Amino acid sequence: VFDVRGRCFSVLPELIRGHPSTLLAQLMDDLGTDSSKPIFVDANPERFNYILDFYRYGELLPPASLPIAGLLRDAAFFLLPQDLLINGVRYDTQQSRTADLDVVSSAIIAKWPGFMDFFNSTLESIEEHFARAIELSDQEESGSRFADEHGFKLDITLSTFRKWKDPSNVCNWQRANVLRRRLQQRGFPATLISSGGHDCIILQVR
To answer: What angle do CA 47, 49, 53 make, to 5 degrees?
Structure first.
């Protein structure tokens, strides 16, 4: 159940979890979410049911009177696919997504004391890892050293056994996504990977 500014919307959890990269799926599986209570979502309740259409039918099915621009902004905010069907017509959500996600990221960082120190520390760890890869680049690999794809991959564990490793910094999916996005903006391809039913969340940098 999602509580959208006081209005509740019910949907099968399996439908939401079938699209794990979307924001609603991440909110459902956030380590701090109480599954017995509605999940609060700060969005427009008049358009939210059409966002749920994506999970039910694979496309948005709004009435012709509803402005498409607002739906595209919502779709970008909820991390729906870039190539999106609305009433059978394909739309690109990317143009609105970049601006909206920048606003969301900035708002999350504003509530994250010590973000820059944590981010700079993470950058240092990444740079040290790749500097080590360069240092070893003239040596023959053997055994377990083959496993890290010749140094061009770094796994940063954010949570284990459903507990965040550094809760004063990364304590939910929202902050994890902001960290991933800021690393991407610095030129590091970064991906969030979950395993064991979200028991372990890893930030993988290549």
So the answer is: 115
